[in-house]
Structures are given as structure tokens and as C-alpha cells.
Sequence to fold (408 residues):
Amino acid sequence: MARRRAPGPGPPALAPGEILLRDATRTFAIHADQVRTLRGLLSGRRRAALPARVAALRDVSLRIAPGETVGMVGRNGAGKTSTLKALAGIVPLESGLAACGGRVVSLLELGAGFSRDFSGLENIYLQGALFGFSRAEVQERLEQIVEFSELGEEFISAPVRTYSQGMFLRLGFSIAAHLDADVMLIDEVLAVGDESFQRKCLRRIAERIAAGATLLLVSHELGAIERACERLIVLEGGRVAFDGPTTEGLAHYRALLGVEHGAGVSLRPRRGTGPEVTELELRDLAGRPASVFRSGDPLAAFVRVRHAGAGERLRLELRAGATVLFAAETELDGAEAGAMSARVFEVPELALLGGDYELLAGVGAAGEAVSLQRSTRLSVAREPGAEEGVVDLRGSWRAAADAEALRR
Fold:
């Protein structure tokens, strides 16, 4: 279906990697079911008519420069997916313009565009053709695509109708990430799959960004947005509510949701009258709530405690999976039962490498074991080409004089 455009200037010539939305408007029809229930027929009342059309985008204008990394967040129905589909040419606008410069690859739905009776291998060539790549261009990247997908010879040759959701993701992302396009449009699919593959996807995105690709990423996983994007667009009701630096944008989005102050996740309900950690929040150097940091950044953990008496101990644990990487305890000053107090644990330089971690806090009464009661997540951004592992040792290499010198 050809796009319908409002009268006005035609699409401008865009540089490779440039993204443009100009006065973009898109509505969807809602078809009400006119069949009435038996109760409705007996009462003589008719169902209220649903609105004829619902606006997904309302005169949205944006420009993303080549090489920018941009995240897009918003509540369900805010217009995020509609924006990506308009830019990908999947849905037409009713008025305005949506355009991308250069080659565009989109990963908006699992298995979108796959032929279910084709093998994974055949679908690689099919997807490449749909994105405008020749067979020779796909062939050059074929080995990398198959290796990245981790599907193995058995499944890459099997019909994709036999694939699980996770296998669809692996193949779809592997194709999109290795076609070296100027623009990458990615929507939510990174939330599917195991944690190790999600990290692998983010590393590949970082490589494409380093090579100059433009990224527009839609996700409810705010950690992924913070790690990958320097700019954030917040949509609300089909309009742009914020457009600016990611850190400020996430604060705006959390305020929009009414969760600008993070209490952390409760691990277990309070039992009886014992002490309790009621709030656990990570903050950056400026004292703002944060969940993503870089190696060497300062970090502060804010903990609020409801006391049950004197002699209590507060404990923090940093974990990677089930492994405790660090733990610290402090004695709390005596306080009356029911009183509240707060403590801050400050880390001047975070000595962690890229990855996802969990911080837990608990408080124990005098003579009792500390019970971990609250948890929050933190991520450390992975720099392209950085060392691997967990601990940032900040070491350096030098050449030794000779093997004999090493034995002395």
C-alpha cells in the first residue's frame, strides 16, 4: 500500500544513517463488536460505542543524526512501536513524513518476514533480500550469522516452524546485526532469550555503533537503554514528552510513572516486630537515582531502615548470579522500636567490569543472623574491546627484559 502524505514538500535527501519524522500522524480504527449479549437484549440497553479511531502518533517531529544512539520509552500505547513501523515502511502515515537515510534493518517482531517452511539458512537469504542485500553480500556474512545465532548445523538446516521463541530471536537478531546497515530499528525483542545472549546482543550493537551505525532502540528494559543509548525520547499519548540526555530522560520517565524514587524489590515480607530495610536505592555522583554505571564511576547505596531496638547490624551484599562478590556490615546506633533512619554506603570508584549485578540489603536484630530483605539491580556498561571478567584491576602490560629476568 502506498503511503498517503499531506500536501507539502516531498521527502528530503537524507544522509546515510539519518532518521527524520516530520509532523507524523497515525491513527488506528477500532472495530466494535455489535453483537449484544442476552442480558443486553433483555434490558434493552445497547453497548457503548467504542471510538472510531485511536491516535497512535500526533504530529511527531524528530531528527536523529547519523551515528546517534537513541532510546525510546513510554507506557503501553504511547506510540513507540508505531514510530518504528512507520520508519521501517511497514505502516503508512496518514500525514507527515517518516524516512531513514541509507540501508535500514529492523527487528520489530520475532520471526517477522520469515517463511515458516523454509530452513533457517534459507531464511537468512530471504531476510537479506528483503533488506536490499544481494545474495553475494549475504554469502559474505553467512558464517558470522550462523555462528552468532548458536543454532548449530542441526537447527540452522531445520524449518523455522520447529523453532522456539528464543531460537527465532537468535536467528532474527543475528541476521539484522550482521547486515551492516546504516540504521538499526530494534523493538523489545531483546527482552526475549537468556541473559548471556542478551549481553551478546548488546555487545554486537556496541560494535555496530562503533562502526557508525545509527540505533533507535525501544525497550522496557531500562538497563539496556542506559547501556546502549546517549539520547532518550519519551513518548506519552502519541506525543514527544521528553527528548534529551538518557539520564535526565529516565528520571523524567520514572516521574511520569510515579516511581522516581526506587525502594528496591522486597525479598520477603516483614515478620513480627523485627527490624526492616524499607528502601534501597542506587545513586550517582549528583545524588540522582541510577541503575547503570561505568567502571571507575562513583556510586552510593542509600538504605532506609525501620528499627526494632538497639544493637542492630546492617549488611550489604553485591552478587553476580548466586556468587557473592562483596559484602559489608555496619553497626546501627540504638533507636526506639519503630523509628526510621538512613545510611549511605559510598564507593568512590566502582571496580567492576561490564555486566549485570544485584545489590541486596538486610538488617538483623542483636544476637540474630542478618536477613537480606531488599534487592536492586545495577548494570555496568561494557566498553567495546574492554577486558573481560568481573573485577576492574586497572592493570597494564609491559615487556619483560628476558625470560631469565623473570626467574630472578
User: Anything to note?
Assistant: The chain has two domains: 19-32+52-257, 265-380. Residues 1-8 have pLDDT under 50 and may be disordered. Residues 19-32+52-257 form a domain with the Rossmann fold fold (CATH 3.40.50.300).
